[in-house]
Amino acid sequence: MKIRSLAVNQFKKFTSPTRLDGVEDGLNVVVGPKEMGKSTLLDALRAVLFEKHSSRAQPIVALQNDRNQAAPVVELTIELDDGLYRVTKRFIKKPYARLSCPDGRILEGDAAEDTLRELLDFHEPGNTGAKPETLGMWSVLWVQQGRSFGVLDLPDSARSSLHNALESEVGTVLGGRRGRALPKVIENQLGERITSRTNRPRGAYKELIDRVDALHQDLGALQARRQDLTQTLVDLEEAQENLQRLSTGDRDRADLKELDEARQRHGRLAELEARIETACTERELGKRTLEQAEEAAETRKRLKADVETERTALDTVARRLTEARAREKEARSKVNALRGDVRKSEAAVTEADQAVSRHRRVLGAAERRSRIGDLEERYEKAQAAEQHQREAQQAAAAILVTDEAIEAIRVAAQEREAIRSRLNAAATLVSFEMTEKGISGIDVNGEPLTAERTFVRSIEAVTISVPDRGRITVEPAIRDRDKLLHQQRNAASALREALEDVGAKSVTDAEDQYARREKLLRDVELARQGVELHAPATADHEAGVQALADYIEGLRQILKGEMEELDLSALPARGDAEAALRVAQDQADEARSVFNAARAALMGPEDALSGLQTEIATLQGRHDESTDRLQRLQAEVAQAEEARSDDELQSGIEAARNRLSERETMVAQLEEQRSDETLLQLEARIGRLDKALQERREKRSSLKERVAGLASRVEAAKGAGLDEAIEQQARELALAEEEKRRQDREVEVLRLLLSTLRSAEQEAKELYMSPVLRRVRPYLQLLFAGADIRIDENLKIAGVVRDAGYEESFSHLSMGTQEQIAVLVRLAFAEMLLEQGHPATVVLDDALVFSDDRRMGRIFDILNMATRNVQVIVFTCREQLFEGFGGGSCHLKQQAATNLPRRRMGAGRTFAR
Amino acid sequence: MGLSRKRSMTVKFIHTSDWQIGKVFRFVDSATMGLLQEARLRAISRLGELADEHGAVHVLVAGDIYDMEALTPRSLNQPLERMRGFPGVRWHLLPGNHDPHRPNGLWDQLLRRGLPKNVCAYVAPEPEICQESGLVILPAPLFHRRTLDDLTAYVDDVDLPEGLIRVGMAHGTVRGFGPDDRDVPNFIAPDRPRLAGLAYLALGDWHGQRRINDRCWYSGTPEIDAFDVVGGGQALLVEIEDPSAIPSVTSIPTGHYTWIRLSEQVASHADIDRLAQKLRSTAGELDRILVHLDIEGTLSLEDRQYFQEQISDGVSAALCFLRVDDNRLFAKPTAEDLDRIDRGGFVRTAAEQLKRLADEGGSDGNITAAALERLFVEHMKLQADKR
Fold first, then answer.
1. Contact indicator for B158, B192 with CB cutoff of 8 Å
2. Which runs of E-coded beta strand occur in chain B?
3. Is B70 helix (H, G, I), strand (E, B) or coil?
4. What is the ipTM of this complex?
5. Which of B39, B287, B308, B343 is the most exposed place for a label (fewest CB within 10 A)?
6. Do B56 and B101 form a contact (C-beta atoms < 8 A)?
């Protein structure tokens, strides 16, 4: 179908006849400002085709102009395969509908509308006006403003048309309602057995699996109990056999007999052993009695020997004591004589020593006196030097020319000399070269000229008187003469003052005085050094003349005391004193050597005496002790003999010896009665047999207990009927396992069936949608390279598959993209319908408002591609944007008011119903 | 010897074995198992009745009175109480390989508690003389599950008074698997009667009745307990006129349930109908019949469903028990099956995919076939719901 023209009058805002002409086959743009009424034109299109002229429904009433309330009239020309059709409708007031067909028929009223519905395949609108459902495919292809984006809203009628179109291309691939229900049923059945996500068993299936496990475990437990029973039976049998064996009593009887015998033998042996032991004890007692008797005899003998020994010893000691005493007496008299010699020589030594001492003191006093004499001599020299020092000091002090004074005088003298030299240099020289004769008589400044004095130097006027001749005055012309003269006067004055200060007459005098002073000062120093030399500081006194004098005085006092002490009126000479001392010392040495000799002679006899005295003391002690001992021993012997005589002792020994012999015989006799067996052996045997019997008793008792215990266990287990229970349990398990195998298989079957159905369904859907996809893909590729689209079997755009392979949900895409894709799908639908001979035109009202300019170019390309087959009319207010659109532009034109409603299109006949 | 004396010497007894009281039937449901266990007890009563009926004073039970050693007191006592109910009959019980006599074992237990007066258990290989019947019983009780000695050997050397009819009782096999039969456990020499001068050797262990020779018989179990037992559900009435006479042996039925094993092939709707018919027309009361059906063949999906309805669910309800082994019954979908699922659409695609996989076979072929079958069933259900 192709729209060719549209005219309206009194339709909404169009109060005057307005016409849209020049609509071409392919792409058309109706451009105009926003208020132009583009949407109104789409309303007019929808009204003239899909609304009933007779309708009084609200949407129809709303087609009137608000102000003049005139009847809206619309006229549309469309071209179908068989030619042009013109539809004219007037609504509300005197409504009519008219369809002019290419074959010349003109249908009126309902006939016109019925024919139109047949031609364009839509449904009769209801009382409330046309709805998307009644519009069918047209509601999809004709998009009102603001509806071009978002999910394609397909009414069932449209979907039905599309399904018919699709099936006419691909055949029946979907299974219809029953086909769709089948996977659901299978899924439900599978879902009862396993969870859909994790494929884990659930519900009764899980319970069955759990039951199989539980039965396995129960069966295992029962089998273990049965095993236990079998083992218990084996144990019981063994225990019973053992008990049987132990219960016969043969061994016990044999053991008891042996035990009895052993006990009897043990008793006998024990008795014998006791008797042997008693005999042995008695034998030992006899031995001891004999030993004691012999011991007593021996003791007596030893005592008597001791008495004899002691007596001999006492005699020896007494003899030696007498001898020692005689020797001691002799030695003592000799020692006494020698001691007298020693005492005498000792007194001589003391005397000589006293003499030496006195002579030594005399010599000391002599030496002190000699020292006093030396010191006095030095004292005098020191005193003289001190006197001289004082005098020189005084003389030096009387001279004023000190070092400073002489320096000042010398400076002043040099100054004066310097000025004189300068005057001299400046002075005028008047020299006289004359003979001696000539000279005579001539005086200069009043002084006669001599052969030695043949010239005069002066700075002042020189008056030369030449006798007879007169006077010659020489007036020197010297610069600074006055100044120099002044300086000369000053210098002379300074010198004079300096000299006066020190009382010198001249410089030479000053120098002489200075030299004299210097010499005096040197003398002072020499004298001082003399004092120092003669009266130096020593350990005994300070330096200085007075200190020396004090010291000498002290020495004199000491000497005086000494002399008084020695009772001397005069001191001998030092040499005499020394000689006397030497003589006294020699005498003292002599006396000492005599003394030493006397002492040496005493030493040997004294030692001998001392030894003798010690010996006597020792011998005396021994003599006393021996005497005591002898007495004691003699008393002892007497006592013993009195108690028991020697004969008695001897007879006691004999008796003891006989008794011992008897007892030894008895022991030997008893020991002969012993057999090979020992008590230990017999005791071990008795213990062993006792233990064996006891153990058998205990073993029997424990075996009886064990048998009873095992038997009761067997009894208890038998009561449980384990074999039967195992068989029952095994049967349950077998049945459960069979059921589980069946269910496993069921799950496997259902899973295979479901997956086969699902994949078949998926493939079918893909095949089913292929006609649409095949058409939309080229457009989509232009817009989004590499992208694909997924449309579900309900013809809903589900998502876009990007180049990378991931799918984006359609609702997550941007508005612009959603709109673009929705437009492309509409184009594909239209193309498919057209190819199958259905009428289709795409109308887009202000579409693509969300698209950016960059992409608009692509969209235009796509629209141009699509409109090779499909007519597309775009209403837009964006004139500028659509300049490069490539389609034909259509414009609204105003017409004469009378033109539209009355004009008859075509020249056909008019049919009326 | 006078005729009259000879006549009076005639000994009549019933030979039975392998009661296997306490046996558990693993493959059947609990209700059926209860029935089968009850039937085994009822067989004892039946034997008592038959003894009375035929004037047999003795019932020789040649081993495996019990199925196992450790049974509940109830299971132990149930057969004793049944036997007690026949005071005119003397019951001779022999421990078998399922219930050997072991120290402190079940026989000790029973003997300790005391057996009914008319019941005698042989726990030692010692002859038992029944003077009034002129009969001496020579039992060979088992002491272990397996023994390598022929326990009847002692009978050869037993010193017994002349003129008594010697009857041996043993439990084991007379046939081995190698050149030397004696190597098998619990072996019994089949010529023992000849060797030991036995008039008759009553054997147990084989559940099917079997004549080994004139004097050596297996009585079989009185109530069948497995599908592979042939000649079970019977006992033997033995009449012996004198020690050297060939015994007269008569088989007498005792079983309540019939066990049938069937192998059938099906390929069509008609085959299924025929099989159902065959099963329904099995001789005897259907609720006394247990069937193990091995079914083989290939069916369309629709027929597979039909099989399920007719056989597994239908006929099965008439029988005491039906066990269907359908491992070799294959469902092969036909074009019609697939068309019934859908002529188009993805469900049809899935069905075709499964069919292709099933045709390829492989380890998952069974699963694939089952999945396809399931698809068919569920689709049909949905269709039915829709209707």
1. no
2. 11-16, 58-61, 90-93, 119-121, 128-130, 135-140, 165-171, 200-204, 210-213, 216-218, 234-240, 248-253, 258-266, 289-299, 321-331
3. coil
4. 0.84
5. B343
6. no
Contact B345 A226 (CB under 8 A): no
Count the Cβ atoms, other than its own, within 10 Å of residue A482.
10
Q: Determine the residue of chain B that is closest to A762 in CA distance.
A: B346
**pLDDT in 10s for each residue of chain B, 387 residues:** 333 344 456 899 999 999 999 999 988 888 899 999 999 999 999 999 999 999 999 999 999 999 998 888 899 999 999 999 999 999 999 999 999 998 888 898 899 889 999 999 999 999 999 888 889 999 999 999 888 888 888 988 888 888 889 999 999 998 755 555 556 788 888 888 888 889 999 999 999 999 988 999 999 999 999 998 989 999 999 999 888 889 999 999 999 999 999 999 888 889 999 999 999 988 888 889 999 999 988 888 888 889 999 998 999 999 999 999 888 888 777 878 777 777 667 888 888 888 888 777 766 777 888 888 888 888 888 777 766
Cα–Cα dist A824/A47, whole Å: 26
- Beta-carbon contacts of residue B270 (< 8 Å; ≥ 6 apart): none
Tokens of A666: 């008895």
Q: Which residue of A lies nearest to B379 if distances are taken between CA atoms?
A: A182
Interface with chain A: mutation pick from B110, B340, B347, highest number of A CBs within 10 Å = B347
Using a 10 angstrom Cβ sphere, with 0-12 exposed, 13-18 middle and 19 or more buried, the burial of residue A785 is exposed
- The full DSSP string for A277-335 is HHHHHHHHHHHHHHHHHHHHHHHHHHHHHHHHHHHHHHHHHHHHHHHHHHHHHHHHHHH
Q: Please enumerate in sequence order all residues whose Cβ is within 8 A of that of B74, keeping only pairs 6 or more positions apart, or say none.
A: none
With beta carbons under 8 A apart, name residues in chain B contacting A229: 70
Cβ distance A753 to B371 less than 8 Å, yes or no, reads yes
A-B C-beta contacts closer than 8 Å = 140
Name the minimum distance, in Å, from the CA of B5 to any CA of chain A. Answer: 48
Q: Which has the closest alpha carbon to A158: A196, A190, A132?
A: A132
Residues 6+ apart with CB under 8 A from B33: A731, B24, B25
- Nearest-CA distance from B144 to chain A in Å? 13
| Shortest distance, CA B223 to any CA of chain A (angstroms) | 19
Q: Inspect the interface and report whether the beta carbons of A178 and B386 lie closer than 8 Å.
A: yes
Residue partners of A756: CB distance under 8 A and separation at least 6:
B350, B353, B354, B371
Contact at CB, A719 and B349, closer than 8 angstroms: no
Pairing between β-strand B11-16 and β-strand B58-61 as defined by DSSP bridges: parallel
**Does A240 sit within 8 Å of B354, measured CB to CB?**
no
CA nearest to A7, candidates A92, A117, A116, A88: A88
Token look-up 């001999």 returns A312
Are B238 and B14 in contact by the 8 Å Cβ rule? The answer is yes
Q: What is the C-alpha separation between B97 and B187, in angstroms, rounded?
A: 12
Name beta bridge partners: A5.
A77
Interface touch A182/B27, C-beta < 8 Å: no
Calpha distance B23→B44 (Å, rounded): 15
Report CB contact under 8 Å: A756, B344: no
Residues of B in contact with A714 (CB under 8 A): 104
Q: Which of B26, B342, B374 sits opposite A731 (nearest CB)?
A: B26
**Nearest CA-CA partner of A527 in A384, A397, A385, A378:** A385
